[in-house]
């Protein structure tokens, strides 16, 4: 049964078209204008997630949108989170908690229970907020999945939402993608589509205008605005396509190489490092780039044992071991920390099952348990406060039988030995004092001349500044009132 709610859905011509950031910008814009607004995404497929205050897990993009809206992040904002563990299987997080798996063959027809939970979560938000700004997933024109859809036009139909489609002009073909999106929708879905937003434009707008006019004439829908290309934005991406979107640091004196695992998770851990003046961060699968970096980071992984085997298949284990032997800094975070252990035990088959030899760079062992650990821990290192979050099955402990165990030191919730550090804590580098103290230690060990820039803004301040810049750009390109008019006008306007 269709429910008429006060909201708006931002869909996209493709994944990574910019709908997450446009939704975040709209959340900030509505909040600025005194409207109690909540973000929403029925289903997020991403290994970048965040832990809410109540210990539940949601997609990182929806957490950011809640921050933009000035709202407390909660599970209703992202009721279904699918975390890919392989090309054919995703782990389900339903209402913030683990809820089994979804196989590729079930994607079109096996999600009815997920749709029910998503619709209930949306209605809950709509009852408590003035406006709900929803983000779609992928493209609404994926007609092969339309029967079981509850995140794009399925959500729009169920909740009576007007839809705006965002397209990335930097990829090329955006006008054709928009025209084709409308053309592939059935008439009942087409009624909901109210306009277009062109995103990531750079150049002379006068050259684009004839194309926009043609698009409006052919589709009968207005181009609501053209959002310019914005530099220096790395806001909590959810899509693997967006990884490594940072700008190169000017005059960088400290270089960080992060390994791009096939099942990388919570890559946003590196954002705060990339934001630090004088630090350059790049994802890589090259052994030579690992050798040249001041710091190598093994980030999180949704499939630790599989990604560890991949690491070895490319010879990256040898490059990492050589660094450690030479006293060059190496850091492992969550899954990356587990890889640094001497051994990984998975008796319950949480991942591949059985036992795997780790890299042996820390005198630790990992035991995968059935229960998933979610939390918002705090701690200190070298006198600096650290606030973080954790999402993991594996428990890492010191193994006294391993060589070097007596030399291991505490590092957050994990351990360090020499120039090798490991922790399961995500988001720790967003703590400014800790981040700068750690990078100072890295610079000292690697011989880099890097030092913290006096007076540099903190990471939270930079995030707020970027959200404001996004909202300013959307306000200039589209305006608050046209978006509010769409919300108030609903589908029939």
Task: Tell me the layout of helices and strands.
Elements: E1 7-12, H1 19-32, E2 37-40, E3 43-45, E4 49-51, E5 57-59, H2 60-69, E6 80-84, E7 89-94, E8 97-103, H3 112-128, E9 131-135, H4 153-159, E10 163-168, H5 174-184, H6 187-190, E11 193-201, H7 205-219, E12 223-228, E13 254-259, E14 264-265, H8 271-275, E15 279-284, H9 287-292, E16 295-298, E17 300-301, H10 304-313, H11 316-325, E18 330-333, H12 335-339, E19 343-346, E20 354-357, E21 364-375, E22 378-381, E23 384-387, E24 390-398, E25 409-411, E26 414-417, E27 420-423, H13 432-446, H14 459-477, H15 480-489
Parallel strand pairs: 1-9, 1-10, 2-9, 3-6, 10-11, 11-12, 13-15, 13-16, 16-18, 18-27, 19-21
Antiparallel strand pairs: 4-5, 6-7, 7-8, 14-17, 19-20, 21-24, 22-23, 25-26, 26-27
Helix pairs in contact: 1-2, 1-14, 5-7
Overview of this protein structure:
The model has no long low-confidence stretch (mean pLDDT 92). The longest helix has 19 residues, at 459-477. The protein starts with 6 loop residues before the first strand and ends with a helix. The radius of gyration is 23 Å and the shape is globular. It folds into 2 domains: 7-234 and 464-488, P-loop containing nucleotide triphosphate hydrolases (Rossmann fold, 3-Layer(aba) Sandwich); 254-446, Rossmann fold, CATH 3.40.50.880. It has 493 residues and is an alpha/beta fold. A hairpin with a 4-residue loop joins strand 6 and strand 7 (89-94). Helices cover 32% and strands 27% of the residues.
